[in-house]
Amino acid sequence: MGLGGAGCEAVRDLLRLELPGVRGVAINTDATHLARIEVEERILLGQRTLKGRGSGGDREQVRASGEEAREEILRRLRRSEIVFLLAGLGGGTGSALLPLLTRGLREQDTLAVPVAFLPFHIELESNPERRANALGALAELESMGGLLLALSNEKLRRFESLPMPRVLQARNAYLHGLVASLVDMVEHPSQLNVDLASLKSHLAQSGVSTLLLSEEHVSEPERLVHSALTDTLLDFELTESPSALVHVEGGSNLTLGALDRVWRTMRRRLGEPRRMLIGTRTHPEPRQVVRLTAVVGGLRARSVRDAMTPPLIAPG
Ligand SMILES: Nc1nc2c(ncn2[C@@H]2O[C@H](COP(=O)(O)OP(=O)(O)OP(=O)(O)O)[C@@H](O)[C@H]2O)c(=O)[nH]1
Ligand SMILES: [Mg+2]
Question: Of 65, 90, 296, 309, which is least packed with CB atoms within 10 Å of its CB?
Answer without folding.
Answer: 309
